[in-house]
Here is the input.
Amino acid sequence: MLKQLIAAVTLLTAVTAHAQVEVTDAWTRATGPGQKATGVFMNLTAKKAMRLVGVKSEVAGVTELHEMKMDKDVMKMQAVKSLELPAGKPVALKPGGMHVMLMDLKAPVADNAHVVITLLLEDAAGVKTQQEVHAVAKKGAMGGKDKAEHGQHHNH
Here is the structure.
């Protein structure tokens, strides 16, 4: 029994040590019936310089890293291939900026549900790792214009 406990603590320590990025304030917008897309937001702080090179989630048919920016007085959203995570500097994934898009949702995301996202990371040496993030769904966190853009975005 003691050997099993020591093995479990060692495994937990090893998994924690592999967390290359500190993730805080991870949340997603709860969805309503028929809504097929939502955004996921969080703050990321890498221990060493890394790149976020992808995202995945079992709750959606398509999971992508997206950026919103103004182009001639029109807010546009587009997929991006990667995001630089400088060592020790927080990077915000937030509404109206860089964020994770969950599209072709397999089911509505209920208020207070926990949505699991996997971050696909790469360090300067090209070593790839994955890190799981649990985002809590918040109801009513999206307002008018953004709601229409996110709800229809899967048609890009």
